[in-house]
Amino acid sequence: MNPGRMMDYPLTLTHLLERARRYFPRTEIVSRYPDGWLHRQTWADTYARAGRLAHALRRLGVGPGDRVATLAWNHHRHLEAYFGIPMMGAVLHTLNLRLHANELTYIARHAEDSIVLCDRSLLPQLEAFVGNVPSVRHIVVMADDGPTPAGKLDYEALLAAESPDYSWPTLDERSACAICYTSGTTGNPKGVIYTHRSNVLHALFTSLPDAVPVSQRDTLLPVVPMFHANAWGYPHMAANAGARLVFPGPKLDPESLLDLMERERVTRSAGVPTVWLGVLALLDANPKKWDLSSVREMIVGGAAAPPALIEGLGRHGLTVTQAWGMTETNPLGTIARPKADMDGSSDAERLAVRATQGFAVPFVETRHTGEDGDVLPWDGERMGELEVRGPFVASSYVGDEGKDRWTADGWFRTGDVVTIDAGGYVRICDRSKDVIKSGGEWISSVALENALMGHASVLEAAVFAGRHPKWDERPIAAVVLRKGAAATEADLAKHLEGKFAKFWMPDAYVFVEQIPRTSTGKFLKSKLRELYAGMLTK
Ligand code: AMP
After folding, report:
1. Mutate to test the pocket of ligand 1, among 180, 274, 324, 332 (most ligand atoms within 8 A of CB)
2. Is residue 411 annotated as part of the catalytic site, yes or no?
3. Tens digit of pLDDT for each residue in 176-231?
4. β-pair partners for 299
5. Domain CATH for 68
6. Is the Cβ–Cβ distance between 194 and 177 less than 8 Å?
């Protein structure tokens, strides 16, 4: 047999931005600044400014493979960095602005960042750690809320001095394109290095009609921060499709988001459950205030979306679709779309499917394994650790750390405990480090939380393991009540009654103002376990 005779055309981000510039030059990129002002530019402007940025960075000494970090909100300058840095052959490192200075020090030192592009409004955060990172040679200030302080490099001044025409190098599609550190709550954060190829494949497969369909007719509002796993691929998907982008800047409160969605006629958006829970509460209080008729779909991911959220937004005519992913998976892995054979099913049956984490997008494979490492059947019952593989799943961490996260046969161990049903739908029961093991049996905290959040008085609920003298661990529920609502422990226990096996029922309830969270919006159960360590042993 002859070898194939197709061109070896590299899958790089350069193609995506060149395509956006060539075919959609006038399509807008809208960015809201901290004072509310809306900045507008086009894909053609973005391409030209990415060229200027590349010249400026080269003049500052950036070469192939060098890490250039960002500490920034979502806006057009961050988009320019998203493309300009990888397209010149350097590596974009998005720093998580919600992390503590000690973690940022560790991460920036570990990645050996050479330059940091920083929002002016975030300079205090930067200055709290950057002095401890000897590799950083320059700080470039993106003046979002006022002029760049004297003596610092100004992003706009650097760009203004350069030509927009950059002779983009032909890159190896397997070369590093971006680095993102995991938001792990135990141990040191680990760096994931994306390649041009992984980002392009992710953009292609995630934009398919049954994943996160994106077309040139869409206006996308990524609420997910650009430092969280590639902003879930939205910048790349938008360039590939030629879609319009709307960036929210630092104002992520429900009212600001709804105003922006209405004003800019947003069609698709994405964020973590907390964002959409806030939006739902505001819409419930003011059902008629916003015209959201342009919105086709919102994606929710990063943590489990309670069915009450999906149902609640549905009452306002909004479709929210759950997706699962990880920093290590670029990030999209699975998405919860009912299949065509459910077309005649009831709303309740469809909701049950939409409340799972869904089935895998093309080129992501899923399986789950038991404690002895055996691959488990897809019966919707047996709980095991989810493992994934595919061309946009990481094959190692920076510095080859955490090697035990990959199996001998090349699958990535996600650390999520799941069931998988016959249709391939994955249902997350817990993070493996958060599972509740009572008398040797697993209890799904996510299932209990979903049910509790279905109670009319409950805004949020996190169920975690309390130490128990006889059963080892027993569930405790931390509950945030809605403003002005009331519920007792007995009310909540009654609400759960009959829905679960008796031994799943929480032993105790604690009513709290808010649930502690990680920097990317997940429940921080280690903190809850620490706070209520002795609760069941007294
Ligand atoms: P990160 O790398 O910060 O994006 O975190 C990835 C982790 O977030 C996953 O391993 C899951 O534990 C959790 N996660 C992401 N999406 C979902 C989802 N839809 N439902 C439940 N957990 C999720």
Report:
1. 324
2. no
3. 999 999 966 667 899 999 999 999 999 999 999 999 999 999 999 999 999 999 99
4. 270, 321
5. 3.40.50.12780
6. yes
What does the block give as tokens for 388? 């994934």
- Reported as a pLDDT band with limits 50, 70 and 90, residue 151 is confident
Residue 182 annotated in active site: yes
Integer CA distances (angstroms), 192 to 50, 92, 103, 431, in order: 24, 12, 16, 19
User: Would you put residue 179 in left (φ > 0), alpha (ψ -120 to 50) or beta?
Assistant: beta
Q: CB–CB of 161/60 below 8 Å?
A: no
Q: What is the reported pTM?
A: 0.94
Q: Which of 237, 252, 267 is the last residue of a domain?
A: 252
For residues 386 and 417, the answer to whether their CB atoms sit within 8 Å is yes
Q: How far is the CA of 161 from the centre of ligand 1 (A)?
A: 43
Q: Is 324 in the pocket of ligand 1 (CB under 6 A)?
A: yes
Average confidence (pLDDT) over 400-407: 94
Q: How confident is the model at residue 440 (pLDDT cuts 50, 70, 90)?
A: confident
- 264 occurs within a structural domain: no
d(C-alpha 159, C-alpha 396), whole Å: 35
Residues with Cβ < 8 Å from 503, sequence gap 6 or more?
A: 438, 439, 441, 443
Residue 469 has pLDDT above 70, yes or no: yes
Residue closest to 56 by CA, chosen among 122, 115, 128, 8:
115
Local structure of 52: helix, strand or coil: helix
Q: Which two tokens stand for residue 104?
A: 């940022």
State if residue 271 touches ligand 1 by the CB under 6 angstroms criterion: no
Domain annotation covers residue 307: no
The verdict on whether 442 is a catalytic residue reads yes
Per-residue buried b or exposed e for 295-312, using 16+ beta carbons within 10 Å of the residue's own CB: beebbbbbbbbbbbbbbb
Point out the domain boundary residue: 204, 230, 252.
252
Which range of residues forms the domain containing residue 202?
Answer: 26-252
Would 51 be classed as within a structural domain? yes
Q: How far apart are CA 89 and CA 271, in angstroms?
A: 30
Indicate whether 296 belongs to any domain.
no
Using alpha carbons, select from 97, 67, 102, 99 the residue that is nearest to residue 81: 67
Total number of domains constituting the chain: 2
* Residue 478's CATH number: 3.30.300.30
